[in-house]
């Protein structure tokens, strides 16, 4: 038996064993008993760190005010005020005088007020994040380079952290990481999605209990059960190591009766490309371009975007890479794009609605980058537009694409033929699938959003979690309607939501007529195996019975027999 | 010179967020030492964002201000202006 078992949410159906490395929050503070503190030196060190931090903040403030606007720069003013706050300053200096090293004093002084703010509601809780940022900035300066390098971890590391941001995961070398666990986060957090696409064992949302796990301890991270086992015994260790999932199938797959189904991967950043190929993905069915826009102060240039897409196309020389144009709004926010505050962001300005206006310049730049990459890259590029509701929107997007193509032909390269598609995520798009399909080469069903909008159930709200389930007959019928309409127009239909990655639903989806399934890389082998064990004629009958069922429980009975 | 004044808070956010930021900024821009508190409570340093925010004073609450220094009158005038201006109309230094 392991010494202790901690519980969180499993992010990947995988487990791994390794040695704990703490990252981030735990900026290895000195042992307060182990050092002789000279108060005068430590107070000076603290004052210097405050000066440096102020200089950093002022220059970041300037840069933001110039590139984005005064309103966005205001957050840095708040940070400067916290940095110079006499309450903190007095507390730190008192502690240092009492013989506590500067970093520990800073940590203690800030933590007290962070907890206090977290206990308050709404806007005050956000202030806790500001305080945390200022604390970490000071600690980084005071502990000077003692931060763990994510790109230089010893092999077999299990990374423990408060949370992992996109810039953190971008540095992680998957070869050296045996898994990770985070204090915060749920199944749809960035860390969880990242883990699935790399097939890394991961447990998220463990809570503060995780903090008690010391560095260098051996742990098992079981992404299936959502458990972290501290100091596992031999049986548990062996079980974790031998769990490597289904065998990888490199070839493309078809059903027993010969219907070809493309099985592709969803990719959110370049680091996920190679692992997706290694897990046997035929190509990329959803390339999210948002990562290029995160963690920076201005949008990426056309060349940067070209390079990123080029890399994807070269990773799948014989495959297809379906790139989704910029999809922000809803819960995806990018500070410098100045998104409006909306009462209902999921029903507001997101996806193609923003790309047509006000982000039409960004859209044009992105389309040019995509077309240039298509001309030079090895694989086949396909472009799809997110959250299209109407034919008018699609026509406007196609017009923007034509303009970009003319521009590229004029200046850069001969434009090549690419496939163009529309994502089906709203009831309107599903009802209008015939008209939309008549204008493009393919449709791709985004089941996370389609379910949310068909069922009117917030995907993040656990209270309506039962409604947010794509196996409700209402959702199955909208999928069937989309597939039938598209096939009548000779367009192929893919699916790129979480539903596509569930091997238990593969037979149903093949039966409903999907031509392509795209998912987090981790379940590509399972789904490929499931496709090759499916008989299309049986699946088709079963799909009909499932969609015609009156209730979700009848749908499930149909699937189980 | 020490002077006191009691002001009723107008901004909807209370003494939080932008109004708190402007309030602390104004205190720092003057020479006088300023403390603030609820009429029945202890006074805290008005130059501390954390201390000021922790008072938890909201719209409609009274706050007592005590200033000591050559520009005591001026700083209290400025603070009163900030605390009695609805948030939307509050101008920052940069306009």
TrEMBL record, chain A:
<dbReference type="InterPro" id="IPR050499">
    <property type="entry name" value="PEP-utilizing_PTS_enzyme"/>
</dbReference>
<comment type="similarity">
    <text>Belongs to the PEP-utilizing enzyme family.</text>
</comment>
<dbReference type="InterPro" id="IPR008279">
    <property type="entry name" value="PEP-util_enz_mobile_dom"/>
</dbReference>
<dbReference type="InterPro" id="IPR040442">
    <property type="entry name" value="Pyrv_kinase-like_dom_sf"/>
</dbReference>
<dbReference type="InterPro" id="IPR023151">
    <property type="entry name" value="PEP_util_CS"/>
</dbReference>
<dbReference type="InterPro" id="IPR036618">
    <property type="entry name" value="PtsI_HPr-bd_sf"/>
</dbReference>
<dbReference type="InterPro" id="IPR006318">
    <property type="entry name" value="PTS_EI-like"/>
</dbReference>
<keyword id="KW-0418">Kinase</keyword>
<keyword id="KW-0813">Transport</keyword>
<feature type="domain" description="PEP-utilising enzyme C-terminal">
    <location>
        <begin position="247"/>
        <end position="535"/>
    </location>
</feature>
<keyword id="KW-0598">Phosphotransferase system</keyword>
<dbReference type="InterPro" id="IPR024692">
    <property type="entry name" value="PTS_EI"/>
</dbReference>
<keyword id="KW-0963">Cytoplasm</keyword>
<dbReference type="InterPro" id="IPR036637">
    <property type="entry name" value="Phosphohistidine_dom_sf"/>
</dbReference>
<feature type="domain" description="Phosphotransferase system enzyme I N-terminal">
    <location>
        <begin position="7"/>
        <end position="127"/>
    </location>
</feature>
<keyword id="KW-0808">Transferase</keyword>
<protein>
    <recommendedName>
        <fullName>Phosphoenolpyruvate-protein phosphotransferase</fullName>
        <ecNumber>2.7.3.9</ecNumber>
    </recommendedName>
</protein>
<dbReference type="InterPro" id="IPR015813">
    <property type="entry name" value="Pyrv/PenolPyrv_kinase-like_dom"/>
</dbReference>
<dbReference type="GO" id="GO:0008965">
    <property type="term" value="F:phosphoenolpyruvate-protein phosphotransferase activity"/>
</dbReference>
<keyword id="KW-0479">Metal-binding</keyword>
<dbReference type="InterPro" id="IPR008731">
    <property type="entry name" value="PTS_EIN"/>
</dbReference>
<dbReference type="InterPro" id="IPR000121">
    <property type="entry name" value="PEP_util_C"/>
</dbReference>
<comment type="function">
    <text>General (non sugar-specific) component of the phosphoenolpyruvate-dependent sugar phosphotransferase system (sugar PTS). This major carbohydrate active-transport system catalyzes the phosphorylation of incoming sugar substrates concomitantly with their translocation across the cell membrane. Enzyme I transfers the phosphoryl group from phosphoenolpyruvate (PEP) to the phosphoryl carrier protein (HPr).</text>
</comment>
<feature type="domain" description="PEP-utilising enzyme mobile">
    <location>
        <begin position="154"/>
        <end position="226"/>
    </location>
</feature>
<dbReference type="Pfam" id="PF00391">
    <property type="entry name" value="PEP-utilizers"/>
</dbReference>
<dbReference type="Pfam" id="PF02896">
    <property type="entry name" value="PEP-utilizers_C"/>
</dbReference>
<keyword id="KW-0460">Magnesium</keyword>
<keyword id="KW-0762">Sugar transport</keyword>
<dbReference type="Pfam" id="PF05524">
    <property type="entry name" value="PEP-utilisers_N"/>
</dbReference>
